[in-house]
Amino acid sequence: MKRFFIFLIFLSSCSFYIFKVNFRKVDKLIEEKKYEEAIKVLKNFEKRRKRDLCVKLKLAEVYWKMGIYDEAKKRYFEILKYKELPLCRKRLSYIYEKEGLYDRARKNLEIYLKNEKDKKEYLHLSILYEKIGFYDEAIKLLKKFKDLVSEEEYIERIFFLLVKQNKIEEAYEFVKEKDNKLLKGYGIILLGRYDEAKEFLRKDNSRVSKFLLLLIGKIKGEKYSISIQPENEIERK
Asked: Coil, helix or strand for 224?
């Protein structure tokens, strides 16, 4: 009986050793981008080790790299049944976003961020909040992590998040003292102060300012001809 147990231990250790060697082989196949070969090896492991989370995670990684998101998602769900792994939540969030399921993407990213203090992903969460209409939440995150974006991007995103909530006065007040003439001009237009906007925009000779002047003309039933040459002024017909 004692010899039998020793034999079982020996078989178990051999099995583990073979698995480790082949696992290194899988890593090499992935490194060489031989994904289909890696999947064959991993699926063979998966049949014999149905609850092995390392195998499932590695298989999900290969499917992820190949862009086969349904199969990757399936493995991430299987892993989460046994263990809450932050990487799975992050990847599921990405997959759901690609599928246009923004609320599911948001929920998985929030769970991920409970365990991982990932500043860049907090910024991405603000984008998901915007996509599902959680504008105030998006603004809070942007303000908290404003050092991660350029000043220009920060100003533009806050401005348009306020506009989307129809907080036009607040949006204009936000950009009024900023160095962004176009947003100021756009804010004045949204407030319905068209004559003031025209005078303001004529001081700026950019193409976007010219477009905004055309927009005012359309609203007021006026016609403008615009030269694309920077040195030429807009002439009213």
From this structure: strand
